[in-house]
Design goal:
Length: 270
Amino acid sequence: MKKKNLVHLLCGVSALLSATCYSQTAPAAEPESTLTFNVGAVSDYRYRGISQSGTKPAVQFGADYTDKSGFYVGTWNSTITWIKDTGTANTKGPLETDLYGGYRGAFNDDVTYDVGVLQYLYSGNNLATVTGYANANTTEIYGAINYGPAYIKLSDSVTNLFGFPSSSGSTYLDIGYNFDFGDGLTALAHIGNQAIKSTSPYFAGDNANVTAYTDYSLALNKDFDGLVLSGTIVGTDFSKRGNKVKDNLAGSGSKDLAGTSFVLGLKKNF
């Protein structure tokens, strides 16, 4: 359930906005509207630390339009298995489609902001037929503040969150720092905390605590003229929260969907 390329795009635009160039002989160049596309694959689609593809590879693609005024819209898509894995052989929902839009602006040369809405759509999903779950489709509003290469972002669900019943108002806090080593080599250090509010009787006692967990990651990216190779270490403290159990894939024995993992990615930007 995730849109990792949105975080990288957000921080890239932040850097552009904070790097305004002044001249005594000519005014600063006006920003240009842009339309970009991307397609790629990862060895495991991790979102907020949890595998969405059963720890198997996923194919991903997207498009983004940014107007010179600061408004933007975009879409991002990925193959997934988590909905099918949650239920039975008849549970379906093989594709995640994210639709988002918002506005980016600047308070000054150093501090920028980003506000918007993000909708996660799982076309044809029937997760609501599984006992204890609701429809997987989710809508969040978000706001971010960027100070140079650092950012802090808060997302708040205005619907049920990813199939958790009665979970509107759940929040995700995301903090990160971007490193630029030059020559297309960058890194992103991230830590986040997912808190799920639910009035469902199922999430009571120990189970109420297991829905709050922290994830962290360190990604190293190398851009070869639009072809981006990435390696990311991802982990969570899921098994140390609540009733202290691993998020094992059903029927797998011991395949931990929230365990520490190394993810390889390859993406082409157009």
